Amino acid sequence: MTQASEALLDVAMIVKDEEGYLPTCLESLEQLRPILGVVHIYDTGSSDRTVEIARAWGAEVTEGYWDDDFARARNAAMALSSAPWVLIVDADERVSVETDSLESELVSASTEVDVDAFESSVLLRSDASYSSATSIRIFRRARVCYRNRVHERPVRMDGGDPCLRRLPSSTVSIVHIGYTSAAFSGKLSRNLNILEVEVEACRANESQAQLAEALLNRGRSLAGVGDVRAAERDFEEMRKLDCHPKFRLLGGERLAQLLLDQGRWDEVEPLLQELRQEGQDRDMTAWLWARLAIGRGMHDRALPLLRLVNRPKSAVGMVDSWAPVLRARVQAATMVGEYEEALAAAIPLLAKHGGGAGLGPLVVALWADRPTEALARLFAEFGPEHAVGVAAEMELAGEPGPQVASSLRQMIGLGTDWQHQPSGSVAVSRAQGSSGGATEDVEP
């Protein structure tokens, strides 16, 4: 490992009972060796082999404490660093780095006074879905700290937003794999208890900006545990406060999604108009208006909007799975008789995103009398990740679904040269992420 006094970058982590995840995380950090100084681990009270594993790998471990404050713990971990730049990683994450490129970026930014931090790509995987986001994970140790007990975020020492530069995903990317259903449920309950305290503390110090952020975070946790009405109240209150525009917009997006989920069409429409005026991401605007149009049964208006959607991005850069958009396109296109477009959306929904449960009979019907092997090849082109699920879906779809399933299993399992054979006439690429144009108005 590089001498700490010469290192360009240190790593700071907070952990507790992570013996299952930590070894693979530390292994992924080996890529950083040419520029890495010290991996500082602040343990908040592990009762398993976490500390032993970390020290055996070569990390410096501080046996600290937990007081329901993520920001304090992260700041304590960073305070141990002496390198000019710090990378923040969690134990249930894996880091992919092109070290020479990262070194070049850090050296270049070191000479630029106005660069405080770097954004990088993070992929969040759960049991059956994923979302992606940009996250501030590398920053100047002396300029940036964390704020908020839960949903902690980096800020400048003076409380302002850091001046950012974006790192290409080819330089640094992070995969977070700890969001299983069981773990996520426990985290929501824990976070909600902490946020109750934080909201009341913010009310007491009369800071509207801090209260708005605490209400936003509590509303997110309330929605996660199913207390929809309480979540709505938090989002509505925070949008009335004097707060950062991006948080006000995010609260509005969360509120709109709750209203759409409940079919409250008349209430959500004026909110969607407000969000568009507040500078909402164009893809997100088109997606929410399309959901409203579908809810009102106006599929002919929803489909042009869905064609505008590439990947909806929230006000803070969170990009959700594209599967719901594809499913909506299947529904809208089918309802208006655009059957080839419905099929072109359904195939990647099943084979690429694993989100097409129940669509097997529709796919078989839309495929009609075309060769079954060609449909199997289309599925196989997306690789093996969801092939088992696709085959099971086809088995239950009725004839000729079982034939498609059999061909798909052979193609994936036997490694045939299906990749180089013509797959059929369906333009699947139309539904995989190209907006195909834009219009001036995205209201239905």
Question: What this model shows, in words?
Answer:
The chain has 17 helices and eleven strands. The protein has 444 residues and is an alpha/beta fold. The strands form two sheets. Strands 1, 2, 3, 4, 5, 6, 7, 10 and 11 form a nine-stranded mixed sheet that branches. The protein has a two-stranded antiparallel ribbon with strand order 8-9. It is globular.
Which range best describes the helical content: under 10%, 10-25%, 25-40%, 40-55%, 55-70% or over 70%?
40-55%
Are there runs of 5+ residues with pLDDT below 50, and where? 414-422, 433-443
Task: Give the strand tally.
Answer: 11
* Backbone shape: globular
Q: How large is the share of residues in beta strands?
A: 15-25%
Describe the sheet with the most strands: 9 strands, mixed
Structural class: alpha/beta
**C-alpha Rg (nearest Å):** 24 Å
Q: How confident overall, as mean pLDDT?
A: 89
User: How many individual helices?
Assistant: 17
Order of helices and strands: EHEHEHEEHEEEEEEHHHHHHHHHHHHH
Task: Calculate the terminal CA-CA distance, rounded to whole Å.
Answer: 58 Å
Secondary-structure topology with pairs:
Elements: E1 9-15, H1 22-28, E2 36-43, H2 50-57, E3 60-63, H3 70-78, E4 85-88, E5 93-97, H4 99-110, E6 117-126, E7 130-140, E8 144-147, E9 153-156, E10 164-166, E11 172-179, H5 181-205, H6 208-224, H7 228-239, H8 245-261, H9 265-277, H10 282-295, H11 299-308, H12 323-335, H13 339-351, H14 360-367, H15 372-380, H16 387-395, H17 401-414
Parallel strand pairs: 1-2, 1-4, 2-3, 6-10, 6-11
Antiparallel strand pairs: 4-7, 5-11, 6-7, 8-9
Helix pairs in contact: 5-6, 6-7, 6-8, 7-8, 8-9, 9-10, 10-11, 11-12, 12-13, 13-14, 15-17, 16-17
